[in-house]
Amino acid sequence: MTALAVGVVGAGWMATDYHIPAFSDHPRTTVVGFAERDDARRDEVAGTTGLPGYTDAAALFGAHDLDIVSICTPPSTHESIFLDAVDHGCHVLCEKPLAITAESARRMADAAAEAGVVTQVGYLHRYYENYRRALRLLDEHLLGDIVEVTVAHHSAPPSQGWYYDPTISGGGVARDLLPHSLDVLFEVLGEDPAVTDASVRHLRDRAVEDAARVSLDFDGVPVHLSTTWTQTEGVSRFMVVGTEGWLELDAERLEGDVFGRPFAFEGGQLPIVDLGIADLFPANDEDAHTARIHDFADHAAAGDTDTAAPASRGVAVAEVIDSAYETAGVEWHGAEPDTDGPPAEGRR
To answer: Where do the GFO/IDH/MocA-like oxidoreductase domain residues begin and end (predicted)?
Structure first.
């Protein structure tokens, strides 16, 4: 069975630590080359991986008959690379956010749907084992009706300068971190919430916000999200309260109470307190980054467009973030993508 040829665009840490190794390890895909605008970085990655490196996506497309394109570049470049890939008939895995505006994301999703290619946005949290368990609990309706959800996602300030340029990043911490949480929320509550309140703060002298709070209404279910670039060690926690129980989770621990019976998972292991549903949740040591890339590769190999987070999910996420920025009165919101791309240091 012939392996699908993968081209990776961008050669930062996301590409070299995760995309190239994961696609190389998958039985149905093989990485045939990558694109990187920075000469020194391109030579370095070519030397360590043995893969041919190209100056840009166009050169990569010209050199190989690609089946899959993996986009690991800053957000303002996503649309042009994505549309070129779709024009070449390629399936596309794109790092989040899909685009820097909902309008841009919509053009991408429409093009992919018309071409019939497989797409996925690289949201991560749903692939942590405890998030998978939580989604299963909620899908089984074990908490009863959901009453309220609270999300806190705090991370270290990014080291790459382009994150702080809204013409490249499309925003600050809200555009950077909230997509992961919104993806999980949409899986449970649907993709059409109303933004009821939003605010941003500038904790440091930057052009984009490094703290944001957003309140959503999912058909009567209130959801409150807060996010900052403040922590050396990142923390991301969900708390879901239902009529029959509650759960709280992060990447390492899931605990809660269902019908008066407590339970807890920690470190990917079986329950600390056995609720009698342990068989639903086997341990899984696969890295979440690898899991999401392998999941996409499985769908691409099967030609199955029903991925966990297709481009249409990226549109829904972008619509909420755009609306949050509008509600918060962010003046630079709505800039169109820079099709010429970022400076050379702009890779992920």
So the answer is: 131-248
